[in-house]
Design goal:
This protein has 23 helices and 21 strands. It has 579 residues and is of the alpha/beta class. Helix 2 crosses helix 3, helix 4 crosses helix 6 and helix 21 crosses helix 22. 44% of the residues are buried.
Length: 579
């Protein structure tokens, strides 16, 4: 897609009023949103107000920022080019409301700070949903009829907590100045309710806000946006309601679909799919009752949407067969994925076993495996940061967030580099997971961690805690490498990634294998009226060229007629002993 479509251009050129844009998957929302931002800022000229473009993932935000910089680099500063902000919605809320103003509402004596879960003082703020206490970082909060409710979500199971019990824990934590990702929205909503001057100033500073992926707006996000609208901010939404798959947080797409019915909201649509081949889009249209248009022609290489039977004992063979099909179609295994519903199954299939060791050593072991087995340097870095904070005598409040969130804490860049260098270098920092854990890996971990801590104390005045040897004991480490032989053999190969559907929303992938249970397939075929159906729809619409829907063999005879009627073809591929 090199030129703008008529639909995209109409949105870019729309009047400076609130918009509701319903967009299909693969419709070029990113390029449209960035160009709309540029046009809005251009029309505002030298007005002091700022225009914000917000989304829900750092990947999307980075894409927006790069695109904006590329498209505006030759434009004069006189159009107010720098008076824009591109961030996640939570980042925007944190920077403008939470960190500077929430401490007053929280009853704290210091600025609010984010906790990630590894901070030792959080042990006093756990909660129970059953027998075992859970970290308060697991507690989530929503809004119902204007009142907050607190709950714990574990995959599809949601347990609502007693409101008085939960709010007491939250308020007690708030008085320390601490907040979690989920509780930050709760406190921000309360700030705007209890400090109306902040709302007035914020609405004046941001007269226009454009939000991408608006189907992900949950109940507390919506309440904050409603407050801004009452203050005078004009909000424009763009998204696909059929990709609303966070229903437990109230993010089911209804806010987006109903927004266009409000007075003064101008409605647009993006109905051309530039991502998927025609047969995959035809399937998506059948499932969603949409009539979107495929802009890609059918390639000569193998492509389309297929279903294939599997048994649980043959899942590894199924993934291998899918990988062979990806290569046969000339597609990139690194741009293809196996998608599951639950985190537990995804981790099992990806080989993300529970690491060895105990306490902080177990954390360092997990980081080594993330880096060396999955090449996941970012999460390895975050894990190391939490472990290092646990080894300090009196770490600053919010230290882990300062280390791991560069956009929000640019002042911590030198500390961040120190931790990053330790994390990424197996020769001088975190030892390689290929070493024998108890006799080789652990002694190196001790020596190098002591050197890192000495450097942190010398450069940043961060004192090391007492009893370091106890905190880094080798108990629980095997007399074997952290990565077993099979892991060592495949650590750097082209094995297709495995993850949950929720983790890849927003991506475009060459090929997708959606590993489904019977109820997941049934919900997918029933359409997008349920969250499980929408999760299946998201999995299907990630694919550019090839979709495999894995159906339990025991349910295939029952489901085959509906699968064929929806547009799936039956794959004739050997998996285990089947044809």
């Amino acid at each position: 897609m090199t030129t703008l479509s008529a639909e995209q251009q109409a949105i870019i050129d729309a009047p400076l009023v609130p918009l509701s844009v319903i967009a299909c998957a693969g419709s070029g929302k990113t390029r449209t949103a960035v160009r709309r931002l540029i046009e809005m800022r251009k029309r505002l000229g030298n007005q002091r107000g700022r225009v914000a473009l917000l989304s829900f993932s750092n990947v999307a935000v980075d894409t927006f920022r790069d695109s904006y910089q590329t498209l505006t680099k030759d434009q004069p500063a006189g159009i107010g080019r720098d008076r824009v902000e591109i961030d996640t919605l939570d980042g925007f809320i944190t920077r403008n409301i939470l960190r500077p103003h929430a401490y007053r509402t929280m009853g704290a004596t210091q600025a609010a700070f984010l906790v990630m879960g590894g901070e030792s003082f959080l042990n006093g703020f756990s909660f129970k949903t059953g027998t075992y206490p859970l970290s308060i970082t697991k507690m989530q909060v929503g809004l119902r009829d204007g009142a907050a409710y607190f709950y714990y979500a574990n995959n599809d199971q949601v347990s609502e907590l007693n409101a008085a019990y939960a709010s007491a824990i939250v308020n007690r934590l708030g008085r320390t100045g601490a907040y979690t990702h989920n509780l930050g929205r709760y406190w921000s909503h309360r700030v705007l309710l209890e400090q109306p001057a902040i709302l007035r100033a914020l609405a004046q500073r941001y007269p226009h806000i454009l939000i991408d992926e608006s189907q992900d707006i949950g109940t507390l996000h919506q309440a904050i946006l409603e407050q801004l609208m009452l203050g005078g901010t004009q909000i424009s939404l763009i998204g696909d309601p059929y990709q609303g798959i966070y229903e437990f947080a109230g993010a089911n797409g209804k806010f987006l679909t109903q927004y266009g019915l409000r007075p003064g909201i101008k409605c647009y649509a993006l109905t051309h799919n530039y991502r998927s081949v025609p047969s995959i889009l035809a399937l998506a249209n059948k499932l969603s009752a949409r009539a979107d248009t495929a802009e890609r022609p059918a390639p000569e290489t193998p492509h389309g949407a297929f279903f294939i039977a599997y048994k649980n004992a043959e899942r590894e063979q199924l993934i291998t067969a899918f990988g062979a099909a990806v290569l046969s179609a000339g597609l990139d295994p690194k741009r293809s994925m196996v998608l599951c519903r639950g985190r537990e199954l995804a981790d099992k299939l990806a080989g993300n076993d529970v690491p060895a060791g105990q306490g902080l050593v177990k954390g360092f072991a997990a980081a080594a495996i993330l880096r060396d087995k999955r090449q996941d340097y970012l999460n390895a870095f975050k894990t190391v940061a939490s472990c290092v904070a646990g080894l300090l005598a009196d770490p600053p409040q919010g230290l882990v967030a300062m280390i791991t969130q560069p956009a929000r804490y640019p002042e911590a860049i030198l500390l961040r580099r120190e931790i990053w260098s330790f994390t990424r270098n197996p020769d001088t920092g975190l030892p390689s997971a290929s070493l024998r854990a108890d006799t080789s890996w652990h002694p190196l971990l001790l020596t190098r961690t002591r050197a890192l801590l000495a450097s942190l104390q010398d450069k940043f005045d961060l004192a090391t805690a007492d009893n370091l040897g106890n905190k880094l004991a080798k108990k629980g480490l095997p007399n074997a490498p952290l990565m077993v032989g099979r892991d060592l053999a495949v650590a750097n190969d082209a094995r297709i990634r495995v993850d949950t559907v929720h983790q890849v929303k927003g991506e475009g992938l060459d090929a997708v294998l959606y590993l489904a249970a019977k109820e997941h397939v049934s919900a997918l075929l029933a359409g997008v009226s349920t969250e499980v159906g929408r999760i299946g729809y998201v999995a299907i619409t990630r694919a550019k060229n090839l979709v495999w829907l894995a159906v339990p063999a025991s349910a295939l005879a029952e489901l085959r007629p509906a699968l064929v009627a929806s547009g799936f073809q039956e794959a004739r591929v050997a998996v285990g002993n089947k044809e």
